[in-house]
Amino acid sequence: MHDDRLDLDAYTLDRRHFLWVATAASAALLMTPEAFAKELTKTPTQTEGPFYPDRLPLDRDNDLIVIGKSLTPAVGTIVHLTGRVIDTNGAPVRGADVEIWQVDNRGSYIHSRGANRRRGRDPNFQGYGKASTDEKGRWRFRTIRPVPYGGRTPHIHVIVKKGRRRLLTTQLYIKGEQRNARDFLYRRIRTQAERNLITLDYKKVKDSKIGEQTAHVDIVVGVTPKDPKPKK
Description:
Blueprint: H1 15-30, H2 33-36, E1 78-87, E2 97-101, E3 128-132, E4 138-144, E5 156-162, E6 165-174, H3 192-197, E7 199-200, E8 203-204, E9 213-221
Parallel strand pairs: 1-9, 6-7
Antiparallel strand pairs: 1-4, 2-3, 2-5, 5-6, 8-9
């Protein structure tokens, strides 16, 4: 019968051999993928701006194209905006709330002081939406491709919250938009790498008969609150 006990009298480790084995083991540990993992760059923050809705609409879902049971859609190029919320280690942030708001095709916010004085508002555009992330940190909206207004380059405002805690406020821009270079907020972003994180590549939806587009972004937040304990 095999004896698993170690007979130290019969098996004496050479000190140098021991140190070599220990050093090799430590080096192997450092060479694991986890050891080389590099923290992701956090999505840059930007100002909320003056036109976050001062009165939230009754319809606050993730489809900004149609309000309630209306059959009349908003005017504009329809965009399927998707993304994830992840932390700096790449782990998904589950159960976070993602809010977006933007101007309609006439350049008007739904804020009481955000209407375009000459063109008014598109009554069929929701203007604000909210979505929650799933177990993989994913979220989605159906909205319109943002348009310029008041000297600003086209953009979509975003807030990410976990419970009552705000994790991020930023704005999302359009890749290749010439107005970006002149936009005072876009130019405040320090590096091109950070600009890339909030500059989205809008692509045409294949076979769409109405010219729909898609855009995707991963939002990286630096602090992830603990998930709430389940209620008993």
